[in-house]
Amino acid sequence: MVEKEEVLKAHSGGKIEVISKVPTDSVRDLSIYYTPGVAYVSEEIAHNRERVYDYTSKGNTIAIISDGTRILGLGDLGPYAAMPVMEGKALLFKKFGGVDAVPICVDTKDEAEIVRLVKDIAPTFGGINIEDIKSPRCITIAERLSKEIDVPVLHDDRQGTGVVVLAAAINAVKLAGKDRNARIVINGAGAAGYGILERLHHYGFRNIIVVDTKGAIFAGRAENDDLKERIASMTNPQKLAGSLHEVVAGADMLIGVSSRGAFTREDISKMASKPIIFALANPYPEISYAEAREAGAYIVATGRSDTPNQVNNLLAFPGLMRGMLDIRAKALNDEMLDAASMAISKGVGKRLSPEYIIPGILEKSHVTRVVPDVAAAVAEAGMRTGQARVMVAKEQVRKHAKELLKRYGRIERKAIGVRRV
Amino acid sequence: MVEKEEVLKAHSGGKIEVISKVPTDSVRDLSIYYTPGVAYVSEEIAHNRERVYDYTSKGNTIAIISDGTRILGLGDLGPYAAMPVMEGKALLFKKFGGVDAVPICVDTKDEAEIVRLVKDIAPTFGGINIEDIKSPRCITIAERLSKEIDVPVLHDDRQGTGVVVLAAAINAVKLAGKDRNARIVINGAGAAGYGILERLHHYGFRNIIVVDTKGAIFAGRAENDDLKERIASMTNPQKLAGSLHEVVAGADMLIGVSSRGAFTREDISKMASKPIIFALANPYPEISYAEAREAGAYIVATGRSDTPNQVNNLLAFPGLMRGMLDIRAKALNDEMLDAASMAISKGVGKRLSPEYIIPGILEKSHVTRVVPDVAAAVAEAGMRTGQARVMVAKEQVRKHAKELLKRYGRIERKAIGVRRV
């Protein structure tokens, strides 16, 4: 692990900056890019609003919205403490998706006020990413926004996680000789747990139980809020009650988005044959890769980079947003999310094995192949389902992603070489 | 003038992008700049909020807020049409002030809603620039924000213009052998007209008349709104009524922030000796430089780059914001605005003459000397008047500005060399 002092020093002065894509050296440059020339552009856009995608940065720029109420695993530290995380996310959007991302950390926890705010600033952006807002508020906010604004809203903690877990689950189930009747237990019912459930359920898995700190969730349970009732309506038809350790008996797959140490060897020993364990708590999983394997797990995935099968949102969100921006998407839908999962799932190619159910984010192929494939698949699904403002050849989206990432690699190398002052 | 088709083509894909200031190549990089390392930074900021200035981009990043209700001279074209202008402004903030600026174009004209929105997003930014919002709403919004948020609010259309005009007026009056008793007529009572009045009045000019489309403004005039009443309370003690052409008689200085052709040769012939004309309508002044000189004007300034004495906000806003960011200012006050005017005014040095009352924005000295001097003067005034979160040596602010502009010049040259895709 890295040391605190080193990290603080490295963050000195912040991590992102805004630069020009055009020359601004001569009077002529300024008269083209600012007054009087820019008036032509404003008039053109006033005449035809969609032109804003042609002539401004809107089409490649997103806002990362957070109120800082659920920063990483740290809880509610507020919008100021959210800033370094959102800047980090912006780096990843650019590096891996060629997407310009602007952190917007907001000083309000009021649901309606956040919705109103994002609605108001939406003209500026080609997409919105909701990040590190406490559940269930984050879900309401993202869903309301999806209905009310005309650019796509990605709720990465939920949808990005769901996309990647579904991709890994498809491959794991295939290897283990299981099918959509597999019995799945999800431990954790926040944005990530709900997001995983959504994707697995939409894909066709129907035998799922979600467990929260009070035990298995079932319809009508006294502790349920709206979100938990929604979860109950999609899961646990037999209304099983009980702790994780009870309901895990006989399960084919156990997925944790909970906390360190939440899974035991005994849990795994109670599962069906060829148990599949996704222990995704970060940085310390519910059970370590080695321990889970020793306890009999056939396939184990974690969030860590130092053991096989790292499940990481970085596989999904850059390509998802890239694909949506390229078609100037109006919204993000199930078909586009599914397309992303399929592209990631196929990304393992012939290397598919219990130690390789998902592509690695640190492999070169992540940027050269996986991200472009995800972008192309998402764009294609968006066009097919009426979410595109423009039609683009799928191959063109793939090529564009590759070129953007290559271009940014060059710019970054050059810019980083210039000393900060 | 540039051609429409060329301008549209040049704007293709937008003008700004977000890049990393730090390397993001290795697992180790990501573990420092994103998870798990970034958690140290969030905790540090949660513990001490002011640290957000040390460890994030907040301290060098501003939002440019517009609702698009008064875009350039084009009127209310809405937030989408505002985008290319705000991106252009962002380029100028970076190029001439080393400031990272993010356009935020908002889809509401509701005053309270805009105030609320900017208040909510303020944690993200080290300063706010209000741009191209219709008067008098822009003034109410900027003034309310100045009271309600803890970062400085620059209303450039008003304050930037006022700062530069005061700088030019000080030198013009000196050359003409006039003083603070000079009789001044300002034609135009929007944000710019009011901004000019504010600065001149605060400097000590007391013999001012402001004229709007209904004629001279005086206290109790039937057409007055709140802003016009405020203007009346600072001007026209004799309550003169009448058109511009009437009240200009005997004036020492005539300042136009109105429209092409608003001033005539006859107006100038009616003025006191050594008349001073600032014809600032853009791109076509109230009277051309040549015509005003022929009509007997001793000093003429316009907004144009092709005649002497170009009055342009670019002399003020980059340095103003630079100085404020360097002291992590809480607010912008009269003393800081005055300091900016003085620095610009002194910027002409020994070259002071009727053809050179203000430094040129296209001279090399603009970036090597004027901007750094303005930044240093503003920072010093801010520290002196209790608006600074940190104390910095004035010389250090000057040096920092020079280094930032030099650094950005290098980055821009390198990045522009990488082909857009």
Question: TL;DR of this structure?
Answer:
Chain A is α/β, with parallel strands linked by helices and 421 residues long. Chain A has 17 helices and 11 strands.
Describe what this molecule looks like in 3D.
2 copies of one chain form a homodimer. By secondary structure, chain A is an alpha/beta fold. Chain A folds into 3 domains: about 10-150, 3-Layer(aba) Sandwich (Rossmann fold), CATH 3.40.50.10380; about 160-300, NAD(P)-binding Rossmann-like Domain (Rossmann fold, 3-Layer(aba) Sandwich); about 315-420, NAD(P)-binding Rossmann-like Domain (Rossmann fold). Chain A has helices at about 5-10, 25-35, 40-45, 50-55, 80-95, 110-120, 135-150, 155-175, 190-205, 225-235, 245, 265-270, 290-295, 315-325, 335-345, 365-385, 395-415, and strands at about 15-20, 60-65, 100-105, 125-130, 155, 185, 210, 215, 255, 275-280, 300. In chain A, the strands form 2 sheets. Chain A has a 6-stranded mixed beta sheet with strand order 8-7-6-9-10-11. Chain A has a 4-stranded parallel beta sheet with strand order 3-2-4-5, sandwiched between helices. In chain A, helix 5 (about 80-95) packs across helix 17 (about 395-415). The longest helix of chain A has 23 residues, at about 395-415. Chain A is globular and about 75 Å long. The two termini of chain A are about 30 Å apart. The relative contact order of chain A is 0.10. Chains A and B meet through helix 1, strand 1, helix 2, helix 3 and helix 4 of A and helix 1, strand 1, helix 2, helix 3 and helix 4 of B.
